[in-house]
Specification:
This protein is α/β, with parallel strands linked by helices. The protein contains 16 helices and 19 strands. 28% of the residues lie in helices and 16% in strands.
Amino acid sequence: MATSYVLSSSSSLFLSQNDVGVSLFSSQPSRSIQIMQKKVSRKIESIMAPQRSARNPSMTGSVKTRMTMTEKIFSRASEKSQVNPGDNVWINVDVLMTHDACGPGCIGVFKKEFGDDAKVWDREKIVIIADHYIFTSDERANRNLNFVRDFCIEQGIKYFYDITDRSDFKANPDYKGVCHVALAQEGHCRPGEVMIGTDSHTCTAGAFGQFATGVGNTDAAFGFETGKVLLKVPPTLRFVLDGEMPDYLLAKDLILQIIGEISVSGATYKAMEFVGSTIESLTMEERMTLCNMVVEAGGKNSVIPADATTFKYLEDRTSVPYEPVYSDDQARFVAEYRIDASKLEPVVAKPHSPDNRALARECKDVKTDRVYIGSCTGGKTEDFLAAAKVFLASGEKVKVPTFLVPATQKVWMDLYTLPVPGSGGKTCSQIFEAAGCDTPTSPSCGACLGGPRDVYARLNEPQVCVSTTNRNFPGRMGHTEGQIYLASPYTAAASALTGFVTDPREFLR
């Protein structure tokens, strides 16, 4: 039986010997795989039975092992009836994404290996996004964007989300913003499909029941030409989260809790599957936050079963047919972790690692110089609504510079149009202004990964920053001696109000 773990709100890990009903191997055929049987002739050909080679069950229709969601997606995409963890298989790609930061390198390999006149395999399955180093005067960053633009024009790429007027992003109807959020908003994330991208946080799309993972420029270049990628089938860790989420917790707290338990190498080249009543209660944006950071635990991909919430989100975003898959009963999991979300507390990840977890209340003496709310992890509409909720509840002004970076142009518009619940009709922008925050800036990756010195809110000094981003390694947001505390939008907003790392319960009770 698969090992079962219970994750507590402390740093300890408890091993349960109870049977959790997840078998490593099963002789039952998968419900989703059609079993094909060969007809056997009864005519006697000889009196001696011919020598027979060992039969491969996946080729003969013999009993098959039940599969996880990730394994089923690999099976479908590789056109095999059965795959197993550790198998190296060629899989067909449904969506291939790159951006201005990695696009030039990817395109360079493509041209070198396949020729200057080579054409991409499908111009409608490639998505290229300008998002990383956009609002900067750095010549090399601008050259990257120009290089990518020329390629998209040459190849007739249908989904190129370009920006030509960087002085006013609103004047660019094609510009979207951060790739991982824009991919979802534009309908490129669909259950049961395969997405690869030249960005480690491509795993965000696992929130849609999709296999999505980051790849290198060489793999992406090969995908440009063939529409295929060679991958090893990952084994799966299953996380069962049950219990009602307290109103002071967000998905960022859940994933920081998990990474703190299993460490930054605890899911190395494994799929992380999230299920349970807590997961079912999360919105799509919160699920995206959860899945975004599995790579911080070494995960190959994340995946959440598609449900009514998923289908509702996709209703007006895509007309492409899709077919969700779900893990079989008694599928093979390396381990199963069980978490009672109702007992968790707000947490942060202290410098300089995402698994350096601590309760927010334990860090109340840590003085902060600034707060940053943004990125693919923490710059979505609901992240800003959460921060506004804290500012509204306090009625006070921030004590440190507080920078707001919407992930996409749609998020930026939401900040100025959507009323914050319980505010009497006030928008996020009005609440942020009253609290003394910086005016929301142009949508992009911003200072999440440093970049040129003139990138908005970049850490150019060795300061302490509470941030809703996803990494806190030395130099991640700029200065190598900067100290980044990863936190939820609730905790970030509370910390802005006090000037210290602060448990949001101080304002949300």
